[in-house]
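Morning!

As promised:
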Amino acid sequence: MDIDALRAGQPRAVARAISGVERGGASARAIIAAIFRFTGRAHLIGITGAPGTGKSTLVNEIAKQYRRRGKRVGIVAVDPTSPFSGGAILGDRLRMQDLSGDPGVFIRSMATRGNLGGLASTTADAVKILDAAGFEIVLIETVGAGQNEVDIAKNAHTTIVVQAPGLGDDIQAIKAGILEIADLLIVNKADHDEVSATVAALEMNLNLKPMQENDWRPPVLKTIALKGEGVADAVDWIGKHRAYLEDNHLLAQRERARVRAELEMVVQRELVTRLLGGVNGSKVEMLVEKIAARELDVYTAAERLVQEKL
Amino acid sequence: MDIDALRAGQPRAVARAISGVERGGASARAIIAAIFRFTGRAHLIGITGAPGTGKSTLVNEIAKQYRRRGKRVGIVAVDPTSPFSGGAILGDRLRMQDLSGDPGVFIRSMATRGNLGGLASTTADAVKILDAAGFEIVLIETVGAGQNEVDIAKNAHTTIVVQAPGLGDDIQAIKAGILEIADLLIVNKADHDEVSATVAALEMNLNLKPMQENDWRPPVLKTIALKGEGVADAVDWIGKHRAYLEDNHLLAQRERARVRAELEMVVQRELVTRLLGGVNGSKVEMLVEKIAARELDVYTAAERLVQEKL
């Protein structure tokens, strides 16, 4: 790997390094070992929201806003909705048309790589590469608000949750979870009818949340990403949140929590890979047959595999 | 645990058993060991869709339809959108109003229980309990189409993906993934304007998918769940899919794949729980400090923990 080219932010070197961590295993380990000491400078911003909220458009507009302010921007778009397909590539191309030709922007879409915490881990590694490559702002875009997204949000210093007006009967269910992870709440498509109701509902829920003195209260912002409206204000608020974290010595604390979660994730993946890798395949199949025939329950079968290794 | 009461489908016994598997560990193991031999009879139907598609209403209508056909129905509603809160309970109450007083229906909402594959595993256990309790139909409802949902879909014999017309710019991204897991595609809210466009887009995408002779082609169905329209047809199609699986000897194959995935998941969780549990907490904190200070990379730190245990 050409470390100098990577640190200079050369797109080809960055792309190669990300492909390297996507391969996982020794390849990922070698790349991260080479670059980790150059990380820790970027402001990591997670942006999550359900399909239909216009979050991708918003991410592009936030990137443009940062470009106007002279910042280099990396975007990692995580798409767990295409777990089996290479659909992420199309997304890349469509977005590239919008931001293409600007060497100050690097965009990469990532799809899932299996079950073993692969996506969250690979995303964390891709973010490190962009950080080491000198992108001062790294936007991590995820769909939805499931466990994957929460895991990925843990990688961010500032987490933005995007809503759209009138997404219907599940909105109540969403709010419970998102209020816990959101540093900024953005109601996009603010030219739609039900925007006031959505903003009011979010504000009401925020008011219900127990707050200590000096806690950060997430602002509820309105944007019309398609027209770029409200985006400068949103970027100002990201800056305010960063300042809040610094003033209250919370940046180091978030970083430690992030590192702890990542360490646990990697340990988990490594253990499972090695232990399952060392287990006799025909033994696993034999146990599968027994479970399928209801001769054995899954916990007892798992215990047999675990005992064999410990 | 009162096995007879559980097998008779007594709500209190079922509720207690599910609470038992939610506690995890020895409690879950004991319950599953006691009931697994009574499982394997229910038809497991996964229903997934983004927020705003009206999927919860559709699930209720499908349950009612099955009730009219004399089937007992269990519903497990998985809500990964409220990872930190007990929001699922409110959902239970709201839904109970609709289906309450019917001993032939049992509804349980589940929220996430942490990171270690907890949700998918607990959901699989709750499904087993409903199966053993004699519910012939088990509906597993999940939000979104992330990795969590894909994991949960693996627990189903028949997977339904719910769409709604005009959910916007992310619909393209969704389709790539859902076509891989969907056995039935349902466009709900079919009284809305853009329904024909959504159906046409789904059909077009299905036509692009390479099909072998005897492959199942997912039907694209329209429903208006709020009025119960199209639901009987959808339930007929679930039956057709079940017959297809049986006629082609695919039910046993799906069951084996399901069991294999579950075994891997449980082994993973058990290994991580035991190994991380045995690791010195201050050692982990020391490594966290070193990673945060960029003195060590996460893979090298993980390696040290893993080596210590193997």
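Chain A touches chain B through 91 residues (CB under 8 Å).

Hope this helps with the figure draft.
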